[in-house]
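QA checklist item 7 of 12: single-chain prediction sanity check.
[x] sequence parsed
[x] length recorded as 320
[x] structure emitted
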Amino acid sequence: MKTLTSTLLKAGALLAAALATTPAMAWDICWTNCDFTRTKYPIVLEHGLAGFNELGGVLPYWNGIPENLRSTGAEVYVTQVSPFNSSVARGESLIAQLDDIRAIKGKPTLKFNLIGHSQGGLDIRYVAAVRPDLVASLTTVGSPHKGSDLITFDVNGQLVPTPASNAFSNLVSMIWSSLGGSPDPISITAVLKNFSPSGIAAFNSSFPAGMPTTPCGQGQAVTQTSAGSIRNYSWSGDAPFTNAFDPGDPALVALSLFYDEPNDGLVETCASHFGTVIRDNYRMNHLDEVNNLFGLTSVLEVDPRTLYRNHANRLKTAGL
């Protein structure tokens, strides 16, 4: 009996320790409030540049986020578009997938809550502009809405090599070899032109809805379209280095040195502003914003999965 009691006490102690060291809302099991993330419209997650559904069969792009949202009632879809192409091309691919979901569900007028990380934020802005009937809300996470003045082309349309563009090309090559190829068409030139000063200026001129009209300001909280209103949100991080055990942090720290303003390692905080800015200074880098790599984020900041859960509840409360 004494041995059994001792065993139970040890088991209880281990469980208490696990609970104490597990970040809030990190578990995907629902015990209470199981409709916390049950939005009116499905949530769609659109990946960023070099995005994938699952890398090497072990690392999801949206690491643990879809499962965590579904555990308390959300209907979630994860899309896959070209990892390297313009936001117009990627946006058209996203539109086709949203139309497919409508057809499969037999709901030809269904709308979606679109959430885009990094370049995915520009993709969903394109969708809202050309197919507003598909969109209930837009949320961009760490998205480069102002592009990058580190990428330039000459008068003949040729890329001007710089340390930043060379670093980007090397990063693309490394990621592409890790992905092992993709059936989706790619265009590195289209990506670079998309984010060059002239390219992003043209994009924002064509699709201005939700963009701030003052430096580092907020954009329209609600956009009125022919298909109804669309709510706009954004958030981002400002800490390139967040976890000493994360193998992605050193690369983001190195890339952050190309910028003069606070950034998440790839995107300046002010450039991430769109619609209602929830926050632009989470202690997160560009990978932390989607709970990567492997969920090795800052112990001093909220679990990224919690941000998405709370935002889903925000959308639910807004009737979306």
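[x] summary fact logged: The two ends are 56 Å apart (CA to CA).
[ ] second reviewer sign-off
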